[in-house]
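Minutes, methods subgroup
Present: GH (chair), OT, SY

1. OT presented the first of two proteins processed in the latest run. Sequence and structure tokens recorded below as shown on screen.
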Amino acid sequence: MLVSGASRGLGRAVAEAFAAHGDRVAVHYGTRRADAEATLAALPGTGHTLIGADLATTDGARELVWEAVAALGGVDVLVNNAAVNTPHPPADTSYAEWTEAWQAHVAVNLLGTAYLSHLATRHMIDQGTGGRIVNIGSHGAFRGEPDHPAYGATKAAVHALGQSLAVALAPYGIAVASVAPGFIDTHRVAHRLTGAEGEAIRAQSPFGRVAEPAEVAAAVLWLASPEAHPKRSGAPAPSWTSTAPRTCAPDPPGPRQARGSAGFRAGPGRLGERWTAHSQPFCRAARTASMRLRVRVLPMAAER
């Protein structure tokens, strides 16, 4: 699987979640190579790879997917996580700074996502195995981002793109989903979670806290699983298996075959068809996080 923007924060958590369950991961970074190397070194299992690429360019996106396919032997899951998020409040930003901010956000957040999705899709269609694309959007796409309007706008566009791709790609056995996290406790925003501002941010949630990266990563992992997307009649059956057991067996615990996994074949670094109950709390966390993210009923601030 390939996750963009995996040097730290949510991208790192997503890479860790997939690697912990037997998948081989292509860890992408833009400029933070040292952080990305730390992510790669911490991943369990073997066969992972590190790839640097500038997603603001068409060549960078193409090279990323091609290198991931070559290193992993194929890509069945793409998680579009890379994003630019810099402040540019309209009342205090010059026109030159305003246009620069918009161009940077659109280039990576929207166009980079579109480029990677197309490249991964063509690979999935050509190999005939289906696949999964999960886009990391933002609750800010729906609540507004007064100090980061380009971020909110491009994330709204990512959600719209995901809806279009989901309909277009279903006949090929490719499922597309998006998550809209609220505020996440990551390196990028850690400074905002202290003092009065931090208290105000946490107060926006009825739970009185912000999300942890692992909680959102659990939802992403579940959305890429066989249970999340039943096979469409006539579409290719996904071909993922894992070298490690997955977790969503019902109580009472015991191994079983995952629903929808009939016809799966073995393939290195791909999602598993065996789900066991040894880590049921993870499965419940994934389902809970997924429900919260998809329904979007809780008033939570968007990550900045």
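2. SY then presented the second protein from the same run.
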Amino acid sequence: MVPMTPSSPIYPALARLAACISLVAGMACDRPGDGAGKPQPGKPAAIAAAVTAPHDSLIPEGPMGVSIRRGRAILAATRDSLPEHVGNRLRCTSCHFDNGTRANVMPWIGVYGQFPQYRSRAGGIQIVEDRINDCFERSMNGKALPHDSPALRDIIAYLSFLSLGIPAGSRVAGQGLPPIKPLPGDTVRGAALFASTCVRCHGASGEGGAAPPLWGPGSYNIGAGMARVRTAAAFVRVAMPYDTPGILSDQDAFDVATYINTRPRPDFPGKENDWPKGDPPPDVAYPTRAAAGKRP
């Protein structure tokens, strides 16, 4: 377990930084005693006002600052930093743009304070270390980091820094991906759009080039969240093409996502054990044991 607790030697530094940022963000946050950071059953989490990342000038000197910067560097150059744990040609910032700070493109701002949390794919409570390792095993098609790994500590230090001043349990405006209405995707239209819009960066066969591979051995495996068409479509709609995001329609996004996610990609051993309570989303690309057991 990464020792990010009040007794940790790095915690006081974060606490002092949080106090600084709270001078800006605190006015828009819930008052003490109003349940800030503690979502009530049946109610959505509060939306925190602090939607921008803390400035680098707030990174402290000394070991804590070194860890924060090293964590950011690992996430930006994941394969080069941890080649034994990355099995493809992606890096964490392939999906989390601008070092995890761009709104509506799955930013990491505020994420640290949302753990522990229940995750239906795991069928139980996960801590932030578990969630990071999910990405290593699925999105990076690699191997999990030990919980006492210095690299994992550094990653968590950076995630914690991005959440300074944000009440625990709050959601930040612009977190995740903007939802779009599910539409049936068409692989023929998707292939044409891919050829006209995506090939220049991702390659004619999705092998990557200026941008990451989208299928084949160098891409995310079938157990990754991006292997779900709805997730991929939401990402494409808001973030692609990289230099002119937002020009594609919802239907375009679903067509391209359907085309991409019906191409071959690495398997994820054990995927059949996902969603052990039998509640997989409708766009999961593989059968699960628990869901099969619920069928009449």
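Chair's summary of item 2: The first strand starts at residue 47 and ends at 48.
Next meeting: continue with the remaining queue.
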